[in-house]
Amino acid sequence: MSYLKDKIRMVNSLTGGKHGCSDESAEWDTCKKCPLNAVGDFNCYGLENLHPEQAEKIVADWCKKNPIKTRKMQFLEIFPNANPERISLGDLDSTECNPSTLAGCFRYAWYGNCSKCREAYWNEEI
Question: Most buried residue among 1, 27, 90, 117 by CB atoms closer than 10 A?
């Protein structure tokens, strides 16, 4: 499962956040830039089917060069003296959490409380 998540992240970085790649895509130029297409005469699907270990290694190498970055990590780069534990606790509540609007809050509906929502927000990949 990790391979698929990492491959999707890699492809999304190449497509500017548009999900997936496809032979019928108008973004075919993106496929030319994809590391999975830099091997032999295969596209990514052929490489995954015929040489899955090589495809996994290519994606793993890309992940090492492009680690996940979260909102919290970016905030701490800008404000290195901030306490990382207090960010998710709500001291820096940049989520639009308001008791009068909780009924319409999809995050509250999903997590069931604001502290989990804040933690998810700050740890979300950007």
Answer: 117
